[in-house]
Amino acid sequence: MTNRDSIKQSKRIYIILWLLCILGAWLLLPYVQHFGVVPEEVFTSKLFWLSTIQAGLFFGIVLWLNHFLVPKTDLSPCLADNPFKRIVLFV
């Protein structure tokens, strides 16, 4: 695998992580509604879009920084051959 292929794979993984982080932010919205933190009428549209923008920006910045800092620290959890096996079996 060339360096260019590994960078493409790494970017793909970071984009997937970014989308999953946004999905996680969406999954918190029913809990916010259930505990009554925000009034019901705000919950429908404004809160959804604000949380999406906030999560997108925050996690986008964190993952962008991570994309550049991980190679410099010689830690590459996203480039493992089988990350699931590595996490579960601690190999």
Textual characterization of the structure:
It contains four helices and no strands. The protein is mainly alpha-helical and 91 residues long. The chain has helices at residues 3-34, 40-43, 46-73, 83-89. The protein has one domain (3-89). Helix 1 packs antiparallel against helix 3. It is elongated.
Helix content: over 70%
Taken from the alpha-carbon principal axes, the silhouette is elongated
Low-confidence stretches: none
Estimated structural class: mainly alpha
Distance between the termini: 22 Å
Q: Give the quaternary arrangement of the chains.
A: single chain
How many strands?
0
Using only CA atoms, what is the Rg? 17 Å
User: What is the averaged pLDDT score?
Assistant: 77
Taken as a percent bin, the fraction of beta residues is: under 5%
- How many independent structural domains? 1
Number of helical segments with 4 or more residues: 4
Task: Please render the helix and strand layout as text.
Blueprint: H1 3-34, H2 40-43, H3 46-73, H4 83-89
